[in-house]
Amino acid sequence: MSYSIERIEDLPIWVATYSEPYNATIDAQKVDAEMTAITEGMKGNIYYIPDLRVIDVNFGQIVEGLAEAFKPGVKSFYSDPRVHILTVGTSDLIRMATAAVASDQYGSIEIKVFATPEEAIDHAKAELSKR
After folding, report:
1. Burial of 46 by CB count in 10 Å (0-12 exposed, 13-18 middle, 19+ buried)?
2. How many angstroms separate the CA atoms of 13 and 115, rounded?
3. What are the tens digits of pLDDT across the range 13-72?
């Protein structure tokens, strides 16, 4: 397993820290299954923060991961309307991938990008405090 998932302070916020060896398709499937089970039956907004800073991804892996996570017409954790994805990463490929998810091809899902997990967590907490 090339990721670990941690819940933040009993809040509906989870940080998934990815590491090598990273496999976009397999990791997307595993996280989908794990987070679906964790959040099943939860009400309200859920914040998922994938920390991708230390993985070395190429364009092909990005395309494979997006195709797996955002399959048209297939229910998944990633496309669950309760889920807000706050990606951590600074590479151009990560930014390109998050922009792609906003297209119709991937379900028009808005993903925000942050430089650190702390920034993403602070954003999620601020959003939760508004509700």
Report:
1. buried
2. 17
3. 999 999 999 888 888 889 999 999 999 999 999 999 999 999 888 888 877 877 777 777
Which tokens belong to 88? 């951590």
Is 5 strand, coil or helix? strand
| Burial (CB count <10 Å: 0-12, 13-18, 19+), residue 29 | middle
Q: Say how many CA atoms lie within 13 Å of 110 toward its Cβ.
A: 2
Q: Are 13 and 7 in contact (CB under 8 A)?
A: yes
What the block records as the tokens of 50 is 């994938």
* pLDDT for residue 24: 83
Pairing of strands 83-88, 13-18: unpaired
